[in-house]
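BUG-283 | component: ligand-complex export | severity: low

The export step for MF3 jobs runs without errors, but we want the raw record kept on the ticket for reference. Input record follows.
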Amino acid sequence: MTSYLEAEVLPARNTGAIRLYDAEAFEGMRRACQLTARCLDELANIVQPGVATEEIDRFVLRFGLDNGALPATLNYRGYMKSVCTSINHVVCHGIPNDKPLRDGDIVNIDVTFLLDGYYGDASRMYPVGKVKRAAERLCEVTYHSLMLAIAEVKPGAHMGDIGAAIQTFAEGERCSVVRDFCGHGVGRIFHDAPNVLHYGRRGEGAEMRPGMIFTIEPMINLGRPHVKVLGDGWTAVTRDRSLSAQYEHTVGVTETGCEVFTFSPGGLDTPGLAIGGQHGTAR
Ligand code: MF3
Ligand code: CO
Ligand code: CO
């Protein structure tokens, strides 16, 4: 059975209960998530052929510290960087290193800032130089699947509606949905209940209630859905080495629908793609 409780009464760890946040917490999430989104906006000017992902890591750390925030991934379960940078067939949790990005790469940059007790978690794909049409199309399919999922978020809907929307669309585009990683409750805790699956069936899973805050972060592959984690214990790659893309937004359930906390203030939700980022934050 799912249990729902006001966020303040729950201990500061993932207990399996779904936290319901109040208006003050929504304001805290707006601030943390907009800082994350501004950092991702800035990165659009930095990502280019020849730049090493370690330079991106240094930028994210500096940007956070300059703005009173800490990168949540730093020292998280042994992860030692301020950001994840996942290139081409890397599905997620790519570790920044000194290798330069190359013309034609697609890289996911996933930033989470902890600001005044709230976690803002978002990621976007960045095309490096000129990329192949297949890579661009994968990014478009992935972002569109995320927006279709966000359109499902409202009180009374079910978490399975999110997964069903993503899976139906992505598979209809001859892509596949990664099963091994999911979105998550977020707020005063980085990774909290519920798990947000990116596949599944309409009507299944917990019912959405106002005050819930979670991420949706589909990982979509051009080939098969299967992944493996490399010897570093973090880097997840597609088993068939096909390209993988991911976008992530943090959203809150409102009385009437949802608020996307991590929309780009600069119109850069899909940097480098012909499709525009979506705008507005509330409905
Ligand atoms: N930001 C990632 C997410 O979307 C989590 C990264 S955890 C790390 O949930 F340790 F890999 F950095
Ligand atoms: Co996340
Ligand atoms: Co993230």
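Assignee comment: Attached the raw record above. Residues 23-43 form the longest helix (21 residues).
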